[in-house]
Amino acid sequence: MSTIYGNSYLNIAATSASRGKEVCFFPKPSLPILTTVFELEVKYYQAYSVYLYDYGFLETLLSSRAWCYQERIIALRTLHLSKAQLFWDCNSKFATECFPSGLSASVMGGGDPWIEKKHLGSHWPETVYEYTTCNLTDPHDKLVAFAGVGKRMEQQLHDKCYAGIWQNHIERNLLWCSFNPCKVQGYRATSWSWAAIDGEINTPSLEDAGGQLFAHVLDICVMPCGNDPLIKLSAGAIKMMCQAIVNVTTEVQKAFIEGSAYTKGIFLSVLEASICAYWDTTSLLGLNITIFYAVLITKTGP
């Protein structure tokens, strides 16, 4: 994937197609989407649909498929053929027919879709989040369908990726979290990897965050099912040295629990520090946990 889409001159995507045999070109929409001109205080303005990006790109079937996500991220240039209009995605901008200089933030309710292809590391948090919101027919393809992005980033960052965790940023990279983890049948990644669960993932930036580290990873290893360590795994482990393990007691007067049937967040104060803990596995839900141990990796603030 990394080689094919990364070396292509132009990637053409049938973005609004519902299946592989459907045509790329669609009739013009019945509702006007390009330009509505009105006059206000002797000035002329052009008005556009605020949902242009949502229904024309974000909510299409192709944009929701995890296997197709890396095709868009890796390709240097992609022309999206949508029912709304044409969308253009390259290393310098994300544009449409009515916004040829770049899509305005006012019509991007779902967020900024542009990711700088030459510097993927600068967009790591949004890349992981967007990918983990996409759908997979086979949940065990979680790492396989993302391997192309991992290989391209390894080349750019001169770093090594282990199950979605970067070696040169490993301590802070372990601080990913999910607010709605979903149960996964079988094994596909080690428990310290965000690929081990389903649900939207929030992960720290790869930029140097500064601050003191209180834990250090001494060794990391993964056992792939084949020859590629970026795809399916059979096992994995890390060896960590830490300065402190915090004994957290969730007493009623110090903590409260909120969330849905899929997640529970625990907010409490420990050693005059504010802690928010989210379980990354559904196996802990329903258990009466009153004490757990947390490895102190870093802290923010004074």
Structural summary, described in words:
The chain has helices at residues 2-6, 52-58, 66-74, 124-132, 147-157, 170-173, and strands at 11-13, 36-40, 43-47, 77-81, 86-90, 94-96, 161-162, 165-166, 177-178, 201-202, 215-224, 233-242, 245-249, 256-258, 265-270, 273-278, 291-295. The protein is α+β, with helices and mostly antiparallel strands and 302 residues long. Among the domains are: 1-114, no CATH class; 245-295, no CATH class. A hairpin with a 2-residue loop joins strand 2 and strand 3 (43-47). Helix 3 runs parallel beside helix 5. The longest helix is centred in the middle third of the chain and has 11 residues, at 147-157. The chain is globular.
Short description:
The chain is α+β, with helices and mostly antiparallel strands. The chain is built from six helices and 17 strands.
Features:
three-stranded antiparallel sheet; 26% strand; four-stranded mixed sheet; 302 residues
What's the SSE blueprint?
Elements: H1 2-6, E1 11-13, E2 36-40, E3 43-47, H2 52-58, H3 66-74, E4 77-81, E5 86-90, E6 94-96, H4 124-132, H5 147-157, E7 161-162, E8 165-166, H6 170-173, E9 177-178, E10 201-202, E11 215-224, E12 233-242, E13 245-249, E14 256-258, E15 265-270, E16 273-278, E17 291-295
Helix pairs in contact: 3-5
Let me know the average pLDDT: 79
Rounded radius of gyration (Å): 22 Å
In percent, how helical is the residue content? 10-25%
- Biggest sheet statistics: 4 strands, mixed
* Distinct helical segment count: 6
